[in-house]
Amino acid sequence: MMTDEPLLTVEGLTTEFTTDKGTLVAVDGIDFEIPRGETVCLVGESGSGKTVASESITRIVPTPPGEVSGSVKFDGQEVTTMSESELEEIRGGRIAHIFQNPQDALNHCYTVGWQIVEAVQTHEPDVSKQEARERAVELLNDVGVANAAARLDDYPHEFSGGQKQRVMIAMALVTNPDLLIADEPTTALDVTVQAQILNLLEDLQEEYNMSILFVTHDLGVVAGIADHVVVMYAGKVMERGTVTEIFEDPSHPYTRALLECLPGQARAAEGIPGTLPSPINPPDGCRFAPRCDYAVEECTAGEQPPEEPLSDTHAVSCVHYQQGYDPSTVKEEIVQDDGATTGGVTSD
């Protein structure tokens, strides 16, 4: 039955790790939704908590030392209270993961075909080995591996990096998942192969009618694949909106700084000055305040500012959008490295 309810709803998601130096809070009370059939991108610098957030959804975070709290509802079911057996029916089944480095994710002692066949028979025990091999060939064809039937008995080291990632995507599609969580799946690939993989994911999304949670540090990738964007920094959400709102009306200083790091922009060479704060001892107030050009005294006290709505789909966590402040002070034109200026960056 079709419904307008989001496929995934995350509320107050917090993930902590016990360390010798204290409690490390990698994800600190974040909220977001993934509509059915759409792509949501979690974006931010390395260390922002994106990967931990994506792994917390299906509880693949090691416990201990990790501890996940908050609410994760998938198709109306609360995931955080499921038993391990209940969770296994969803994890790897209706929710599938593909990871950043296929070199590490594939077992180099077994052929690619053996690994896909094992995945098929794990989820469908009644399927014969021959039927599973036929399914493996279909999947490799779907993800664009040439001569799929002939390549089935090749080992991972006989595939290029881009081909390995296609194999990982094929394995994720074994169960025809409703949600695909893709964690930096193109980072280790060159630009041409990266574009091929992104186009492939778009085609497969339409074919399989999947939702996608795409984790990346690269806003350039976001522009080509996202419907909605959630900008994370130091475990918190700084801004959220449609891809058009984020690129045409970037409103948090951190989002704007990320855009200025894109090729052709002012910070493309040097990046954002400063470093992320310690997740064990984060600063008071806005997490980005120590690196922000627009920070005022109120930015460095209390908790992370509440998200202020700019539209039905666009919100920003910044004191400059609260009553009594002037948001235009943080929305100066973004300067390109050729001296031109723009309010945002086109998402086309």
Automatic annotation (TrEMBL):
Residue span of region Disordered: 329-348
Gene Ontology terms, MF aspect: ABC-type nickel transporter activity; ATP binding
Gene Ontology CC annotation, any one: plasma membrane
Organism: Halolamina salina
InterPro entries: AAA+_ATPase, ABC_Ni/Peptide_Import, ABC_transporter-like_ATP-bd, ABC_transporter-like_CS, Oligopep_ABC_C, P-loop_NTPase
Localization (cell): Cell membrane
Subunit description: The complex is composed of two ATP-binding proteins (NikD and NikE), two transmembrane proteins (NikB and NikC) and a solute-binding protein (NikA).
EC number: 7.2.2.11
Mode of membrane association: Peripheral membrane protein
ABC transporter domain residues: 8-259
First-tier enzyme category under EC: translocase
Record-linked PANTHER family: NICKEL ABC TRANSPORTER, ATP-BINDING PROTEIN (PTHR43297:SF13), OLIGOPEPTIDE TRANSPORT ATP-BINDING PROTEIN APPD (PTHR43297)
Key words, A-Z: ATP-binding, Cell membrane, Ion transport, Membrane, Nucleotide-binding, Translocase, Transport
Signal peptide from the UniProt entry: none
Protein's recorded name: Nickel import system ATP-binding protein NikD
Membrane-spanning parts: none
Enzymatic reactions: Ni(2+)(out) + ATP + H2O = Ni(2+)(in) + ADP + phosphate + H(+)
Pfam families linked: ABC_tran, oligo_HPY
